[in-house]
Amino acid sequence: MRTVFITGVSRGLGAALFEQVIAGGNRVVGIGRTFTGAQDDLALQEPARVALLTSNLGDTSTLPTAAELRAAFAPEGEVVLIHNAGVVTPVGPVGSLPPEELAASITVNLTSAMLLSNAFVAAASGRPARILFVSSGAAGRPIAHWSAYSAAKRGGDWFAEVLAAEAERREPPMVVASVNPGVMDTDMQAALRDSEFPARDRYVGLHERGELPDPASVAERILREHLTNE
Ligand SMILES: NC(=O)c1ccc[n+]([C@@H]2O[C@H](COP(=O)([O-])OP(=O)(O)OC[C@H]3O[C@@H](n4cnc5c(N)ncnc54)[C@H](OP(=O)(O)O)[C@@H]3O)[C@@H](O)[C@H]2O)c1
């Protein structure tokens, strides 16, 4: 049975991925600081299929270790890590950003993903493995007032590139990919509409015209493209 670790499963894209990965017959391990009541119930009722590891990605001392990740693996099969958790705040011009929020953005969006990857690769030794980074269009083009988020996402993309180069020589194989989900109707978009930035009208318009895709449809596409059973 394949084991799929997903960060940030309490809402948005992560919650949709969590649901669909279980429905696909895989073991799922949620990593995050909060879980839904339904997720807590599933972990209690079906421990072979669902586990939850409590960790605040803003505090790297709470991240699961390699041994803790390994203890959550199904006895055999591919092991997968999906870096989904993220925060878009702080949004604002450089010079105005609250230092603690700026540092927290890099910790959640980049440092924790790197540390978790490091632990996961060690834990996955001898097992076929896959790591997927949920990126953003902001990693590839500058959006004024999104400096922290954009820099962290671009850093994650480049970390994934280096990891992919290392993975080429790994036996058994490890696949590393970065995926841009595109805009989605989640709390992150609501946070953007509540912020001030030059391109804000575009995002308000997408919401008003009902053009923000449902995260469930985005999760379905990501899993079809990156987690097929072949
Ligand atoms: N929404 C978009 O339009 C869009 C576009 C491009 C890329 N993305 C990317 O897609 C991914 C999912 O975004 P989303 O829109 O689904 O976001 P969301 O609805 O805001 O959900 C974010 C998830 O990350 C978790 N998280 C945040 N801070 C955390 C922390 N310190 N420790 C542990 N978990 C934490 C949240 O958990 P809590 O409930 O505990 O806060 C939540 O489960 C992100 O990587 C985002 O950058 C989103």
Describe this structure in words.
- With 230 residues, this protein is α/β, with parallel strands linked by helices.
- It has a single domain, classed as 3-Layer(aba) Sandwich (Rossmann fold), CATH 3.40.50.
- The protein contains 8 helices and 6 strands; from the N terminus they run βαβαβαβαβαβααα.
- Strands 3-2-1-4-5-6 form a 6-stranded parallel β-sheet, with helices on both faces.
- Helix 5 (147-167) links the parallel strand 5 and strand 6 (174-179).
- The longest helix has 25 residues, at 99-123.
- It is globular, with a radius of gyration of 17 Å.
- The mean pLDDT is 97.
- It binds NADP nicotinamide-adenine-dinucleotide phosphate.
- Residues 8-14, 32-34, 56-58, 84-87, 108, 134, 136, 181, 183-184, 186-189, 215 line the site of NADP nicotinamide-adenine-dinucleotide phosphate.
Shape: globular
Largest sheet: 6 strands, parallel
Rg is 17 Å
Bound molecules: NADP nicotinamide-adenine-dinucleotide phosphate
Q: Provide the succession of SSEs.
A: EHEHEHEHEHEHHH
Please mark out the parts with pLDDT under 50 across 5 or more consecutive residues, or reply none: none
Q: Estimate the mean pLDDT confidence.
A: 97
Proportion of residues in β-strands? 5-15%
CATH architecture: 3-Layer(aba) Sandwich
Helicity level = 40-55%
